[in-house]
Specification:
Shape: globular
Strand content: 15-25%
Number of helices: 11
Order of helices and strands: EEEHEHEEEHEHEHEHEHHHEHH
Helix content: 25-40%
Length: about 350
């Protein structure tokens, strides 16, 4: 698989990573199977060839169970994986709260290392900023983890923007990622940012406006979260199909039957391009994300091995200028994420 670099330290990964969250969190619980998830991670590593596959997890996924699952694979295949995990969010029965206190961050890292069965985390990301703690203090504690050899590089998950906030003409409103960029400027003074994780897809291109250019100008890697639009861009979801109550899409405004039907032209357009390439709509959506820059690494979520293999195959899809122009002409997605 094609290799891509993350950050000024030139950390190498395969072009397509694996988002591990759906295996343990936020999606239909009845379809989460430990053995199937293990096969999925193994399949993603196999598809990566001699390039380390980026595995994206977090301590809050489960909570904790996703890291435990990934740890079972890393115990056998650590050298084939680039491990990204996150800290900064605590999960309760009915709520999620941020915790950026330095002491907590250090304890959270040690706990993640134990669950992941590894001595070093390749990329340690701040999931959310604690409004009660100056971000410089949190980031400083994370930098100390690098100095201690527990972490190789630091990243930040985007905050302050939700896709779908569009003006009437369909273009993203300016300033959607201003809050994230301000945070990045602050923590960059403490310790270098190696990667930013934010949503980027055919139906949510807002990061192209300012956030991705900020990363490019500074040699910061960009992890494209939700590059398949929470599954919508795969073309496998049917308007009105419904979702189980524990699935985040059951409460998501873009996944009402009305909005899914209204956004079908996006899927139709992807399928038209896919047919010309002998590919799937998901692969075309991922190939589009890869074309947004050499430091962009999409991290599509997958619960099944066949999806992980299919997603990895997107790196071999060569979109033409005509393909990209056709996709740029597709209607913007309708419906707010808020």
């Amino acid at each position: 698989m094609e290799r891509r670099t993350i950050g000024a330290g030139a950390l190498e990964v395969g072009a397509v990573g694996l988002g591990c969250m759906p295996m343990s969190w936020a999606y239909t619980g009845s379809r989460q199977r430990g053995d199937a998830s293990l096969r999925t991670v193994h399949a993603a590593l196999d598809a990566g060839g001699d390039a380390a596959t980026l595995l994206d997890t977090a301590d809050m996924y489960g909570p904790f169970t996703n890291e435990l699952l990934i740890g079972r694979v890393l115990k056998e295949r650590r050298g084939e994986a680039f491990v990204s995990t996150k800290c900064g969010l605590l999960v309760g029965e009915q709520h999620i709260v941020a915790n950026g206190r330095p002491g907590y961050v250090k304890r959270a890292c040690d706990a993640s290392l134990r669950r992941l069965q590894t001595e070093t985390i390749d990329l340690y990301q701040l999931h959310r900023v604690d409004p009660e703690v100056p971000v410089e203090e949190t980031w400083g504690a994370m930098a100390e983890l690098v100095a201690a050899g527990k972490v190789r590089a630091l990243g930040l998950c985007a905050v302050g923007a939700r896709a779908g906030r569009r003006a009437a003409h369909g273009r993203p409103r300016p300033g959607l990622h201003d809050a994230t960029i301000r945070l990045l400027e602050r923590v960059q003074q403490v310790f270098p940012v190696s990667a930013v994780e934010a949503e980027l897809s055919v139906w949510s291109p807002e990061a192209l406006d300012a956030l991705l250019p900020w990363c490019v100008a500074r040699g910061v890697g960009f992890l494209a979260a939700m590059p398949l639009g929470n599954g919508f861009l795969t073309g496998t979801l049917t308007p009105g199909q419904g979702f189980e109550p524990d699935d985040l899409r059951a409460r998501h405004p873009r996944f009402t039957a009305e909005m899914m039907a209204a956004n079908q032209p996006l899927v139709v357009g992807l399928r038209r391009v896919a047919e010309r390439h002998g590919a799937t709509p998901a692969q075309i959506a991922l190939a589009w994300t890869l074309r947004q820059g050499p430091h962009v690494v999409p991290i599509p979520g997958a619960k099944r091995a066949r999806w992980a293999v299919e997603n990895a195959g997107a790196a071999a899809v060569a979109l033409t200028g005509a393909d990209l122009a056709e996709m740029a002409a597709l209607p913007p997605a309708l419906g707010s994420w808020d």
